[in-house]
Amino acid sequence: MNGLGPYIRQQREQLRQHDNGYSLRQVAERVGIQPTYLSKIEREELPPPSEDTLKRLAQELKLDPDVLLAMAGKVSSDLRAIICQRPQLFSQLLRQLKDTPDHAVLRIVREVSDGDW
Amino acid sequence: MNGLGPYIRQQREQLRQHDNGYSLRQVAERVGIQPTYLSKIEREELPPPSEDTLKRLAQELKLDPDVLLAMAGKVSSDLRAIICQRPQLFSQLLRQLKDTPDHAVLRIVREVSDGDW
DNA sequence: TAAAGCGTGTACTATATACTACACACTATG
DNA sequence: CATAGTGTGTAGTATATAGTACACGCTTTA
């Protein structure tokens, strides 16, 4: 359980082993931020960036945006929108599922996608 | 579908019909904000207040905090925490359930609470 | 050995968020 | 008819958020 910063750095260095285009500077440029900023993010000298920046970073580094956002304590705006449309329903559901084991939740997911609803 | 502000005002005036302690000033005081601020919130002259303030307001006005937060486009911090602990799982679930009708989601809720998991 | 590229330290900055403080006019109450 | 209470207009503020800009020393490359 290390933080968002180290997680990003590790992944970047991972990718770098197979492709030299993953220097801090180059990634920063593709993501559209200053290299110094990415440096600080990776070393957690500054708090996590915005949702948008995190998403671009996730895409660039081939990471799951939802995971990256979660490590920053954030929830993607599209999920927020889903909840906000039926707040009582989904609030109840989530609190209900808080301590439900993964496999049981996944069973629900599969049942729903098998779509006899 | 009127906004958060009018919704709050309406509820406050509703409560006021049976209890004079629901003037804008008195509610504001109990909630811990300035009356001018509450006034602006109700008339949507200012953007919605913080999560904490909305929750205290909900309690004071006997409204569902999740609903109030939702109308402000926010999601309660405890729900965020639940999602952030298993982001992939719950992101998938929520996107899956986005267009699932209420009754079907409620069926899940009941199945889970009947707890044979 | 010069130039390009690397990561980082320091110092700012712009915008959004979340309010407060004071003054005013109107209404109801004692 | 004074005074207590009501809602609101105007102006300002503190803090958080989300970054930028420049300079530096080190390393690799040509």
TrEMBL record, chains A, B:
Sequence ranges assigned to domain HTH cro/C1-type in this UniProt record: 8-68
InterPro entries in alphabetical order: Cro/C1-type_HTH
Name recorded for this polypeptide: Helix-turn-helix transcriptional regulator
Organism: Marinobacterium weihaiense
Species lineage: Bacteria, Pseudomonadati, Pseudomonadota, Gammaproteobacteria, Oceanospirillales
